Structure formats: C-alpha cells, structure tokens
Amino acid sequence: MSGSATSVRAVAEASAAADGTRARVLLAPVTVSPTKPLTPTHLKYLLSLDVLHRATSTFADVTFVYHHATYSGSRQVAGFWEYVERCHPGLACDALTEEDIGELYTAYHRAAEGLPYAAVEPVVRRAEAGWTHPISRRLLDVWEGHYRLLGMFDPKLGRTGPAPASEAEILDLLVSRDLCIDARGLNAFAYLDATAAGLPLRAVTNPEGQRNYLLYLLRELVPLLGRHDLVVLAHDNELRTDYRTIAHVLSTLGADATRFEVPRVPLDGVTQSTRLGGWQGHTLGAFAGPLLEEFGPEAFRLGLRLYLVAGLGRTAHESFSTYQLRRWTRRARRLLEEHCGYGGEGMDPGASRMTAQFLAVRAGRRGYADPYQVATLLMSNDPAVPVAGLLRVVMGATEDHTVLSTAGRQWEWR
After folding, report:
1. Alpha-carbon gap, residue 400 to 73, rounded angstroms
2. C-alpha–C-alpha distance, residues 293 and 271, integer Å
3. Does the model's pTM come out above 0.85?
4. Looking at residues 361-369, what average pLDDT do you find?
5. What is the distance between the alpha carbons of residues 21 and 2, in angstroms, rounded to a whole number?
6. Range 86-108 average pLDDT
7. Which of the following CATH numbers is that of domain 3-394: 3.40.50.720, 3.40.50.620, 1.10.10.60, 3.30.230.10?
8. What pLDDT is recorded for position 158?
9. Does residue 62 contact residue 398 with C-beta atoms inside 8 Å?
10. Residues near 51 by beta carbon (within 8 Å), at least 6 away in sequence
C-alpha cells in the first residue's frame, strides 16, 4: 500500500471512530476446558488471542466470548468429572497442582474407552445445571494466577456471562434454515448440514442424547449475531473442519464470519493432544521461575508473547525451547528499556490515537488485528512503526473490552 493510500485510509478510520461508527467485533474462540495444564500450545493460543483482542480494541468495539463453563456438559469435561468422582472419591482437589490434574486427565482418557454415555449422563445433567467439579474450580484458580502473571486481560477467566439459548431453539432455527438434519424423532442423530459448502455432515446429538461441543457453541453464539458486524472464530488447526462448518452456519444466518487458526506447538518434536501426555516439564510452572528471576515479570510477559506468537510463527514447525524463550525474553527486555523504560515507564498516552489508526490500516478488510503481524512489528526498525504505542497495547495499557451481561438477551436475525 502506498504512503498516500495509507494516509487516506488512516484519516477515514479516524473519522469513523470519531463518529461513533466503530465496527462491532465478536471474538469467539474455542475454550480451553479446565481439565488439563496449560502447555505451550495453549499459551500460544491464549496469548495470540490476548494480542488480537487488545490490538483490535483500539479501533473496534470487541465483545470477547470466552466462558469456561460453555462445554461443561460435553463428554470431554463431564466425563472427566465422572471419572474423578468414581475413581478418586474424596480427592482433596484444593491441594492439587496443575500437573497433578493433568496426570489425572491423561489417566481418564486411558480408562474412558468403552464407558457408556449412560454412566456419564448424571454428571452431564449437573454440569448443564451450572455445577462445576472442585477439580476444575481448583484449576481455574491456578489459571487465574497464570493470567495475572502474564498480564492477560481477563484474569477472572470468563466465569460469568449470559445464559445460552436452549437446545430446542437452536435446533429448530437450524432446521428452518436447512442447516440441520434432525432425525432424533426416529431415534437417530441430529446433524449440522454444511454440505452446500462441500463439508461433511457433523453429528451434534446422538440417539442417547449425548451432545457434541458444537451444539453448546452455537447455543452461546447465535443469540449474539445480530449485535455484531464481524464474528472472528478462533481455534487450533485440529478443529479446522468443525469451524469451517460453524462459519458456514453463522454466515447462512446472516453473520459476517471469519476464522483465525493457531497451530499446535510441538514438544520434543511431537505434536499431540494434552490428553496423551508428553507435556510434563513444559508447563508454565516448570519453566517460568528462572526466567522471572533473571529478567523480571514485564520482560517475561513480553518475551513469552514474542516467542510464542512471532518466534514460532503461523506454523509452529519448531519445538518449544526454553533456550529460545530465554533469547526472546532478553530481546524483550531490550525493547522495554529502549522504547518505554524497563517496567513500562515513560510510554506516551498521547500516542494511542496514532497507534489505533496504524493498527486499523493494517487490519484492512480482514477487520481484526493479526497478532503475528502485531508481534513482528514490535521488532521493526521502521520509524513509521509506532513501536512504543504497540508495546503499550500488547503489554496491557488498554483494558477496553465488552463484558456480556445476563440481562435483556435479544434475538436479532439479519
């Protein structure tokens, strides 16, 4: 883009913001369920979302939908809770570490094969009624400490939010829009139907009544569509097909839906789900201590963002390395010292408007700030890049985000 075109676009964005016509963005990532430790894969995902949210909030009104209770009724979560209650009755959950819970989660998946849904269903019903097992409450407390340590924008982890739409409302709507094949009356499955987009049918309930996580997701998102101009669906690459299906469903319902995908990070050359193990020694508690002592919390926060978001990049082909993290944290300390003083002093609040315009221009038609682009721009030597302003955004100087309330839910269709 030429300099003159950039200038014109920046003026247009500034005028739009002044007129109160900022875009309304619904950021809707898949939730990391509170059943496992946060590994480099989860941290890359969460910190990418943190940067995306903070940067986009400078030029758009962002509603972030991230409730850890969303998928509590799914077998992945409720099944784990049933396993803990059955196999470890009386477990002192408050004394467990994040790693202890991860070991139990891995053991659950080794033992879960063949367990009928009827054995899990009582826990599903309790979860859908709002109950959270003490083991997940303990993990959320641990994660709250992680969020505060890393300077992330929602240390309460979305523990409150609006009630979702009912299952019947969503399925009836989807059937009416030819987006669902509902054969439950024949003791069969209900499927999301995105075959018009060349995607396979995706079961969301089975004859036993077991619900897929996508149904819980739609119950949460669909009532919010009419209040937003853009829906950004964030997920890891393992869920690509599912989220292509969700994007098609939301688009057919009138939303402008796009996807943001984050790759999984290999550990010792292996990329796999946390439930299979292999994460031991790679949790935040395992590697943060020495770096915090050496560099301090501000440099560690920035260094972890730079390494996971920019250093490992869009593809994350290389394995996580504490050696590389130390190099990026050292670089982060130099950045903080050079541009705003170590610990964040000296950043000019008057640069906020220019930074917002800069980020809006680079978001362009995409409509949201690409966290990889933002993180790499922090290391730019181009004098046109407002590095100090970007640091101010990425390190949490902007706390503007919409909090969803339970009052006055409206159904709006376009």
Report:
1. 31
2. 30
3. yes
4. 96
5. 25
6. 96
7. 3.40.50.620
8. 62
9. no
10. 305, 309, 369, 371, 374, 375, 394
Cα–Cα distance measured from residue 222 to residue 213, given in angstroms and rounded to the nearest whole number: 14
Of 29, 70, 28, 36, give the one whose Cα is nearest residue 273.
36
Count Cβ atoms within 10 A of the Cβ of residue 187 and give its class: 0-12 exposed, 13-18 middle, 19 or more buried: exposed
Closest CA to 298 of 380, 370, 397: 397
Note whether 50 and 306 are within 8 A (CB): no
Q: How confident is the model at residue 124 (pLDDT cuts 50, 70, 90)?
A: very high
pLDDT of residue 19: 46
Task: Write the pLDDT tens digit of every residue in 226-251.
Answer: 999 999 999 999 999 999 999 999 99
Q: What is the 3-state secondary structure (H, E, C) of 39-89?
A: CHHHHHHHHHHHHHHHHHCCCCEEEECCCCCCCCCCHHHHHHHHHHHHHCC
Please give the distance of CA 230 from its chain centroid, rounded to a whole number.
16
Read off the tokens for 335.
């950045």
Length of the chain: 414
Closest CA to 368 of 230, 211, 184: 230
pLDDT at 408: 32
Other CB atoms within 10 Å distance of the CB of residue 375: 24
Tokens read off for 269: 């050359």
Distance CA 217, CA 325 (A): 34
Give the chain's mean pLDDT.
87
Q: How far is CA 303 from CA 76, 160, 202, 309, in A?
A: 33, 30, 40, 10
Collect all residues with Cβ–Cβ distance below 8 Å to 158 and sequence separation of at least 6.
Answer: 31, 64, 65, 66, 67, 68
Mean pLDDT of 142-170: 83
Q: What is the Cα–Cα distance from 22 to 294, expressed in whole angstroms?
A: 42
| Calpha distance 358→390 (Å, rounded) | 9
User: Which pLDDT does position 330 carry in this prediction?
Assistant: 97
